[in-house]
Amino acid sequence: MRPLIDAVLTTGMLVVVPAGLRLLRVPRWLLRAWWLGAVPGALSLWLERGPWAAAAASAYALATACLAVQAPIRLWSRRDPSSPGSRPPLRDLLAPREIAALTALVTPAVAAVALVAERAGHPLWGFSLKILALTVAHFHFAGFAAALVAGLTGRAAGDGPLSRAAALSVPGGTLLVLGGYFVGDWAELAGAVVLTAGMWLVGWLTLAEVRRGGHDRLTGALLAVSSLVLAVSMVLALSWALGEASGLPRLPLDWMVATHGLLNAFGFALCALAAWIRLRPEPL
To answer: What is the pTM of this model?
Structure first.
């Protein structure tokens, strides 16, 4: 199963994040510099664990740190230059789609920390190497891609309660899942519930609002596939989290990678980002 995980992670580093950066307000130099970290990061996956693999992964961690720094810069840049010291209202700084964008900026750095530890063969905070590898995947797809798509979808669907809930629940669910790693399985289940609800809302809004915009057939098909995949993939995630917390039967971890992992990576993330790039929205 390891080659499959590595293929998913490589796709995240070399395809999903670069595509997503085109939909975010980030400096142009970062779009070019990303490859200086992403290529060694992807290469690290195919090297034997040890110092060389960890060093290559560290180059990726540096690239993700440059991306994460854009979050505080983004907040600072929203001050009113005509009124030194002033700030936008708190409700603007904490607007749901803004929180989604900030989440997309910082989650690859969380993935990179897990990647460096996993490639070094170090069970960070007591987590097994397999769990660390899956953490890398989670924060590329359920973190970066899902938060970005939730923010774009929420903005396109208007400022209604459902769009705000979708843009908030995806970052919130991702944070709860991360906290569940340290607090316990029931907290992780709560995160899975919130994240599932958010992803289903994103899928619903995409079908009900975004896809009705008279787009070409390919774009419409990509939007439909990305939305419908969530109906299946998030049920799998929810059932696995429930099984972990309650002891009920659940799919083995390898089967989760082959089903939930592949569906989210290729059915949701790649299709959704391809559709949004074709839509050419103003960067989030």
So the answer is: 0.91
| Nearest one of 141, 205, 202, 204 to 169, comparing CA atoms | 202
pLDDT in tens, 34-88: 999 999 999 999 999 999 999 999 999 999 999 999 999 988 876 544 444 555 5
The candidate with the shortest Cα–Cα distance to 205, out of 184, 219, 226, 232, is 226
| CA dist., res. 137 & res. 126, Å (int) | 18
User: Which two structure tokens, joined as six digits, stand for 125?
Assistant: 């905070």
Please give the structure tokens belonging to residue 15: 């395809």
HEC string of the chain equals CHHHHHHHHHHHHHHHHHHHHCCCCCCHHHHHHHHHHHHHHHHHHCCCCCHHHHHHHHHHHHHHHHHHHHHHHHHHHCCCCCCCCCCCCHHHHCCHHHHHHHHHHHHHHHHHHHHHHHHHCCCHHHCCHHHHHHHHHHHHHHHHHHHHHHHHHHHHCCCCHHHHHHHHHHHHHHHHHHHHHHHCHHHHHHHHHHHHHHHHHHHHHHHHHHCCCCCCHHHHHHHHHHHHHHHHHHHHHHHHHHHHHHCCCCCCHHHHHHHHHHHHHHHHHHHHHHHHHHHCCCCC
What is the Cα–Cα distance from 76 to 71, expressed in whole angstroms? Answer: 9
Rounded to an integer, what distance in angstroms lies between the CA atom of residue 141 and that of residue 146? Answer: 6
pLDDT tens digits for range 239-278: 988 888 888 888 888 888 888 989 999 999 999 999 999 9
In angstroms, the CA 201 to CA 205 distance is 6
